Amino acid sequence: MDMKGKTVFITGSTDGVGRYVARELARRGAKLLIHGRDAARAATLVEEIRRDGGEAPVFYPADLASLGAARRLADAVTADHRRLDVFVSNAGIGSQNDGPQRQVSADGHELRFAINYLAGFLLAYRLLPLLAAAAPSRIVNVASLGQHPIDFDDVMITKNYSGTRAYAQSKLAQVMFTIDLAAELRDKGVTVNSLHPATYMNTTMVRAGGITPISTVEQGGAAILHLVAGGDVAGKSGLFFNGMNEARANPQAYDAAARRRLRALSLELTGPAPS
Fold this sequence. Notes:
Helix content: 40-55%
Oligomer: single chain
Low-confidence stretches: none
Mean pLDDT: 94
Structural class: alpha/beta
Number of helices: 8
Order of helices and strands: EHEHEHEHEHEHHEEH
Number of strands: 8
CATH topology: Rossmann fold
Number of domains: 1
CATH class: Alpha Beta
């Protein structure tokens, strides 16, 4: 895909791999919509892109620990734009951010499930009219190889909590949603794919977990950019990638009954499905 003039919305794009992807797409001529919680970090990104000769991106602040904030974010983007060529759902929280203890979102949901999965689920549905208007368009869900099956009797992990398990469960939920949404949008001109960009990139999230990075944001960013603009993935949908290569996710991702249960729960928690 020639990115010149294309409108791209990236959540979690003021830091880490999202920031790298934003700068690279701006260099390619894309019209960027960036998101984060820190206005100062956003301002430095805008200035960097301007300095590099790119069009200044539009910044949309929101804390995705609140579903209300996610709704308002989608509404703000919809109010300002008529089309969206690419939506990259990249915002996330790691297994150890703010400590290993169980935390809850503004809505009372387990925090990693809320930010990593529910917010992206809600945003994707609310942005679908803009994506459909720009077809052929793409949704890219930034997930992980770290995946844990969902226990539907305790999705919010109120017993035997582990931040690592919570993170991995939220990432598998993203992959399951990717497969379902791709089927729903078949023949609509909107493709949906997910990926593990790279292992333990040098990001704030990884360092917060006390982990020594082993990959660069450039490596992970290249994998995301492949799904955003790669010609070889045009028309491909519902797939999971490990870096540049198609891969298999956790077996639960391919369990249609489990995906139906997850969809029903997600709609219950976020509101009715769009018409």
